[in-house]
Amino acid sequence: MAINLLIHFDNSLEQSTSSARKLMEELSKEQIKHIYNHEPVEIEITHKNLIQAVLDEPIESKENEKFINLDSIKSSKIRWLTVKYLNLLETVLEAWNNGIADSDIIKTQLRYLYSPKDSSKGMETFREIVDGKNTYPAIHAFISSLKKEHDQPNEGKPPIGK
Asked: Structurally, how many domains does the chain consist of?
């Protein structure tokens, strides 16, 4: 079952949804609130390529500009793609959370969602804004499990046969 879920997950991902996930990891809480509320938002020019990948359209900017101003339509599209990604992920992780799918396989394949060294935290800020513990309970449980594993020293698996 885990393999089939992951195949479905991978086949359902698009450049825009994966880029939306990455963008949500890089934006400030204030910027994410604007996006969540379908409001215009100002985003640093350093995110231009990522924004273009999310929106699948070129973003015009002048040479010395430090920010990109996104209107409410673009902000709404980013929000929709973020929610689409989270909803898809939640369905996979519900199987993990309820013991229906092999836990080790799911964790191995989705471990990238929590990586403090590259600031990936499962879109924690976006999930907090939408009351993620209640809205995305399986994602919350999964990220909490990864955090716990990350904070504990790795003792490895017991020897075979024990």
From this structure: 1
